[in-house]
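Handout, section B. The chain below has 296 residues.
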Amino acid sequence: MKKAILFLFALLSLTACQQEATQPKVYGRFVPERKDDFAWENEYAAYRFYGPALAPENPSNGVDIFMKNTPEFVLDTFFYNYVNFKTPYHVQHGKGFDGYKVAHTTGCGGPAFVVDDSLYVGDQFDRWEILEQTPTKIVFRLYYDHLLIAGALYSAQITVTSCAGEILNRADLVLMALEENIPMKIGAGLYLHDSIGTYRFFDDKGVLVYTETALSDPGAVRLNKKWYNITDLGQTHEAVILPGSEMTIIDNTALCLIDYTPDETVTYWFGGCWNQWTDGKQSFPTQEEWIKAIMR
């Protein structure tokens, strides 16, 4: 009897360990019910790129970010409640919210193209594919078939990798000239909204960080006040890392840029986190903690 109990205990312990080991920590999918977003998340934050169905609203190839205060997945709940009950995910109902304003900008780490000191931002993606998806990793690729930069036509691909335990996402960006090629700089940007935050650039590492209010979207400000009389939801920390880059500000966007030749792949890292996020072991209440975490 004693041996049977010990065997059962060992079996239950093994099963629990296996479940913990395979518990998904990274997730992403195409979201046709929300105007063709492609959205993904890991323990730290959730993100999305805008797809074809949003074209009439003049979207960009910028990155939207959802704040989370839990390592749990939130995206499917957000989208389900929005589609079925009209519950706005711009409101902090308990596990996070989307208080970030992208509009036609790079958002939180979207691709940026600069010609003669003018910034060009692309539109929504045309096609998508998931290259790899496991409980701890997702790799997906977005295709932009027609990208107009300073009058010249290009196509672009961005391959994004998000891993469990990694605060930032990896982006591999490549641009193909469909007509003539023009000299340009390429990279990624953080939109500064209404200069309501603080940015820093570490040129020896190509690291750009920005901390701003977590309610940069005026619509989210109104909704949070309406639902819960909340007017302050802390701050968002954001970052772009592009080794060898130079930083400049154009159109209220802080940009990490390098000289570019078409068909070459540019690799950079981007992402963000809420200063109220915590997993019990790690948190980023200030910009200093955020900097230490992404430069470790």
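Note. Confidence is low (pLDDT under 50) at residues 1-20. Compare this with the example in section A.
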